[in-house]
Amino acid sequence: MAPGRIVLSGISAGGGVVLGVLLALRDAGLPMPAGAVALSPVADLVALTQRTGSSEFNAARDPVISVTSSENMCEMYV
């Protein structure tokens, strides 16, 4: 299938995988997909563990994962 007909999508860890795939494609000089959707991607473990960035700023608005849950998941990931 032609890259221009592909859209990548992922949620949480899958969103992090989408971002990783995009970076790998870019770094390898390969064609990029037509689009990508990364919903709540695991993209910045430092921001999660140090309580900075959008996870902390949006904590009161996130109906799914609390900052504490994010910290716990980061510890399990590492």
Detailed description of the structure:
- 46% of the residues lie in helices and 13% in strands.
- It has 78 residues and is of the alpha+beta class.
- The chain has a two-stranded parallel ribbon with strand order 1-2.
- β1 (7-11), α1 (13-28) and β2 form a beta-alpha-beta unit.
- The longest helix has 16 residues, at 13-28.
- 9% of the residues are buried.
Determine the structural class based on helices, strands and strand pairing. alpha+beta
Q: Quaternary status of these chains? A: single chain
Strand content: 5-15%
Identify the strand order in the major beta sheet.
1-2
Topology record:
Layout: E1 7-11, H1 13-28, E2 35-39, H2 45-49, H3 54-57, H4 67-77
Can you give me a brief rundown of this structure?
46% of the residues lie in helices and 13% in strands. It contains 4 helices and 2 strands; from the N terminus they run βαβααα. Helix 1 links the parallel strand 1 and strand 2 (35-39).
